[in-house]
Amino acid sequence: MRTIIIDDERLARNELRRLLENMPKVQIVGEAANADEALPMIENLQPDLLFLDIQMPGKNGFELLQAIEGKAPEVVFTTAYDEYAIKAFEFNALDYLLKPVDLARLTEAIHRVEEELNHGQAPEGPHVPKDGSKLLGENDQVFVKDGEKCWFVKLGKVRLFESMGNYVRLYFDDQKPLVLKSLNALEDRLDPATYFRANRKHIINLQWIEKIEPWFSGGLLVTLRGSNDKVEISRRQAIRFKEMLSL
Prior knowledge:
Blueprint (H helix, E strand, L loop, with lengths): L1 E5 L3 H11 L6 E6 L2 H11 L3 E4 L8 H7 L6 E6 L5 H6 L4 E4 L4 H16 L22 E6 L2 E6 L5 E5 L2 E5 L6 E2 L3 H7 L5 E3 L4 E4 L3 E6 L5 E5 L5 E4 L1 H11 L2
Parallel strand pairs: 1-2, 1-3, 3-4, 4-5
Antiparallel strand pairs: 6-7, 8-9, 8-12, 9-10, 11-12, 13-14, 14-15
């Protein structure tokens, strides 16, 4: 996987490079000390993965991600501060490593990136969940527990699934519980005739779409009925979306 290391501390970049030498699947194609260096590098080199520091001179790591045009690479944050963890997962980071980076944790992060990059690359054909279980459709009911609250909800009522790091938030009625499951694992169980992966962070229920609008960079913006939920369909997924719905 093509990788760029972005960190304003040269020693931190060198240490991460040294650790990554243990991982032959990782190809470091560039290093940057700040966002201004990193942005043209990301555009030109099209990496699969960024190891990204958060606190840097100029734009911080979050602002850098917001400035990336087109499809963003996968992201693993590396930082000396743990108070950014929740915000990092709001940006759909695959992992969050505290400095000094531990080799075992780094190895775990790389495995997670590999799973994400390999997801969905199997040949086209009837979709069967990887674990052999049956697909879940809109008429199936699922048990959802979030803290002390529990629901037994028909999946057809769930209009939106949103990735929150290692959790997924379900949107139904006026409820938004969190479940401990990755969006990829959930996508594997859901019937693709009803549930569509709009982008890295969202799966939408096609039955709940009220309005479709053109959006930036060839993407689409959908509004879900009965709510103020608006979800961007990425440029790549917009092509699939149009083919599915024959737009």
